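Re: beginner question about structure tokens

> Can someone show what the tokenized structure looks like for a real chain? I only ever see the sequence side.

Sure, here's an example I had lying around. Input first:
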Amino acid sequence: MSPHKNVREVMLEAVPSLRAFAISLCGNVDRADDLVQEALLRALANLGSFEPGTNMSAWLFTILRNLFRSEYRKRRREVEDVDGSYAEQLTSLPEQSTRLEINEFRQALKLLPPEQREALILVGASGFSYEEAAKICGCAVGTIKSRVNRARSRLAELLSIDDASDFGADRETRAVVNSDLSNTRRT
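And the corresponding structure tokens:
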């Protein structure tokens, strides 16, 4: 944490990334917003356990991830729109090709195993180092690198892309799919 920023400023700066991560975890914007709010409340309530000099953003992501995992275990037995028919009725058809690409990307992202999707979002879209992502996920750095590599390769395959310029105009999307895709090119 920068000595020129207070805790509130650092937390507020992390909200967009926390929100994106929460959406990637639960796939529901409203639940994601609730998850971010609860994570921030827990962080404030436990601010005394934050170690000054460490990465507050990583600490917040860890709280959010742990909160999601706890809620997931509680909700595992709940059945919500299993076949997605209700959710399909609530969506509107995209009006632009960019929205089509984003929807295609979201669908492909959902097909990744949760651990790969989580690692990819942390490293690719949220900008955490492999080391920080490993700490957040509670696993080895090599495991994170492997998960990110497998996730990127699988996304490239699902989306039939040869390099990052084939998909997505925004920085976050490019960061997620950007890698040496020469190993995943279709012949």
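Each token stands for a local structural state, so reading them left to right follows the chain. The first helix runs from residue 7 to 26.
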